[in-house]
Amino acid sequence: MIKAEQMSLNTATVKEQCNLRQAIDLCARYGIGGIAPWRENLKECGLDEANRMIQDQGLRVSGLCRGGMFTLENQLSQNILDNNKKAVDEAVAIHAECLVMVVGGLKPNSKDLIGSRKQMEEGLFKTLEYARTVKMPIAIEPLHPMYAADRACVNTLKYALDICDGMGAGIGIAVDVYHTWWDPELKSQIKRAGKERLLAFHLSDWLMETKHFLLDRGMMGDGVIDISRIRKWMESESFEMLNEVEIFSAENWWKRDPDEVIRICIERLAVC
Amino acid sequence: MIKAEQMSLNTATVKEQCNLRQAIDLCARYGIGGIAPWRENLKECGLDEANRMIQDQGLRVSGLCRGGMFTLENQLSQNILDNNKKAVDEAVAIHAECLVMVVGGLKPNSKDLIGSRKQMEEGLFKTLEYARTVKMPIAIEPLHPMYAADRACVNTLKYALDICDGMGAGIGIAVDVYHTWWDPELKSQIKRAGKERLLAFHLSDWLMETKHFLLDRGMMGDGVIDISRIRKWMESESFEMLNEVEIFSAENWWKRDPDEVIRICIERLAVC
Q1: Chain-centre distance of CA B177, in angstroms?
Q2: Which residues in chain A touch residue B189, judged by CB atoms under 8 angstroms apart?
Q3: Is B225's CB within 8 Å of A111's CB?
Q4: Rounded to an integer, what is the distance from CA A244 to the centroid of its chain?
């Protein structure tokens, strides 16, 4: 049974209802153990104030969303690299446990998946080299294959871990059940990853009748993912991170009272 | 350069415009080499008449769509098995080169992906045992992971080929670029499959801004899939099957004059 203190609130879950301060207040009100802000949240009030608010509540930061997008241009530009370096610095500033990487899809107007992956890996490695100097763990988040073209060309844990093994220390993976539940190698790749490379655990649910490619994720328990089974695989590797709830839901959860959303998150975590 | 005679028309591509007779007439008019009917098409005019029309035009049948759906009930019922046996018989009757299997997703009201896969594999094996007696090749079609819950719990070529290797002769795979283009193991798994297990090659395209989970496939060349690269991988294994065009497109191609659709298919095949 997962308790509120083992939950982290990804601010995307209450994106339409709460700014960072309000999200932190929600966490405080319900005894939630951590938060995962987006970089946009840090701009709202500035990095120092964001950090102060988070630390004042004693919240862990299960991850900063997000670095990556190494394929936004046809070359790995200084602009892309600088932006990722800045993301690392921001993650350090708010004491994040990792910087989550959504690596980018195909290069602009390109069908070259292999070349896009090559450019992405180069960007990832350069960012990792910097991140090591400031001791910020980099978490590759494999996204569901339906986002391969436009968001992330890393779509399986196996490929993510192949990248990690090629790069060495300081890099691991964020396991999001929404993106990975279908993978017949999910269990074996979690085992392969082991404690060292398991940096984050993201929760939502896959609705049987999903209506939108991006904004129709379900609340844990409302869909088809056997979350407790996947969590057991994580726990077998001594994973002790927070359970980060990240629900993009334009037509349902984003329209509800955020207190209700959080109460239901906590209820569901207790049983799945 | 692919010519019309190397194309097969999956009747789903003109589903809203043509019945089987009209689809066959289209193929004749444009010198298309093959057709891939759905079982519904065979019901329109009866199996014998369907076969006669197809053979009269000298069309190859690149596959019959489809058997499978082994998880529609919580047990592998006689009903499911009989229906698959019937699909095998129909494939034989129309001289199909394979029976395409869309294996089914999760069992009803279940989150048990592992158990669903087990039931699916059992059904597949029992159907294969029968299909061997009548020499009908069984083609597992791995579907995109976004269909894992509701249509097919085989979502990678690797898993499909693991199943094939476990079962032996008489079974292989249908490689559909729409379902598999994102897979970092696509090339290596095509190589692993080899000529013996490569039974069909299905074409459409992944649109960058896909609007519907099922009915928004693109015409070859309108999306992001590097089809010619994937075909080269197939050809490296001496794949000599037809290029089966299968485009589900409720808002675009299904609304067009079918002659226009076919002319554009042929134009695009010539360059991709």
Answers
A1: 11
A2: none
A3: yes
A4: 8
C-alpha distance from B211 to closest chain A C-alpha (Å): 8
List CB contacts of A129: < 8 A, sequence separation 6 or more.
Answer: none
* Interacting residues of B24 by C-beta distance below 8 A, sequence separation 6+: B35, B53, B54, B57, B59
The sheet with strand A60-61 has its strands ordered as A60-61, A34-36, A7-10, A243-245, A198-203, A171-176, A138-140, A99-102, A64-68
Domain ranges of chain A: 35-238
Residue in A with minimal Cα distance to B152: A182
Classified by CATH at the fold level, domain A35-238 comes out as TIM Barrel (3.20.20)
User: E strands of B42-161, at which residues?
Assistant: 60-61, 64-68, 99-102, 138-140
CB B230 within 8 A of CB B220: no
Q: Answer whether B184 sits within 8 Å of A146, measured CB to CB.
A: no
Question: What is the C-alpha to C-alpha distance for residues A70 and A54, in angstroms, rounded to an integer?
Answer: 29
- Which member of A145, A158, A226 has the closest CB to residue B111? A226
Please name the member of A111, A158, A184 whose beta carbon is closest to the beta carbon of B226. Answer: A111
The fold of B4-271 is TIM Barrel (3.20.20)
**SS3 (DSSP) at A171:** strand
CB contact under 8 A, B213 and A210: yes
pTM over cut 0.95: yes
Q: Strand order of the sheet with strand B171-176?
A: B60-61, B34-36, B7-10, B243-245, B198-203, B171-176, B138-140, B99-102, B64-68
What does each of the 272 residues of chain A score in pLDDT, given as a tens digit? 899 999 999 999 999 999 999 999 999 999 999 999 999 999 999 999 999 999 999 999 999 999 999 999 999 999 999 999 999 999 999 999 999 999 999 999 999 999 999 999 999 999 999 999 999 999 999 999 999 999 999 999 999 999 999 999 999 999 999 999 999 999 999 999 999 999 999 999 999 999 999 999 999 999 999 999 999 999 999 888 899 999 999 999 999 999 999 999 999 999 98
Query: Cα separation of A100 and B189, whole Å?
Result: 30
d(CA B31, CA B189): 32
